[in-house]
Amino acid sequence: MGDDHIKIRKAIGTWVVRAGGAVLGETTNALELNEGNMPPVIYFPRADLGMAFLEATDTRSSCPYKGEATYYSIHTKSVVIADAGWSYEDPKDLVAEIKDHIAFYPQKAAVEQL
């Protein structure tokens, strides 16, 4: 796989993420990451997320292209959703743009373009 395996671009429009009855964030600065044949993933800048809803967990995973991922649980008044989002705290150079961004699993949080 060459350097074209992953493509990152600014996501067009306004994006929102919701879970457990709460809006976790809304941004016009989301990034869209396309990796191989997988569906695109929207990464939200931390600055546009309610970080009070998110708590880092001990879960980690490793990607040969992106680096080590740290996972976050979502805490709302009604629910705790374990390992619902992930972030690359120190991403590899190829994907440096996604530093300070968090993405969410579609099964665990609603990510929508407004």
Polypeptide structure, described:
With 114 residues, the protein is an all-beta fold. It has one domain: Domain of unknown function (DUF427) (Metal Binding Protein, Guanine Nucleotide Exchange Factor, Chain A). It is built from no helices and ten strands. The chain has a seven-stranded antiparallel β-sheet with strand order 1-4-5-9-8-7-6, with no helix packed on it. Strand 6 and strand 7 form a beta hairpin. The termini are far apart.
Task: Describe the structure using short key phrases.
single chain, 114 residues, mainly beta, Metal Binding Protein, Guanine Nucleotide Exchange Factor, Chain A, seven-stranded antiparallel β-sheet, three-stranded antiparallel β-sheet, globular
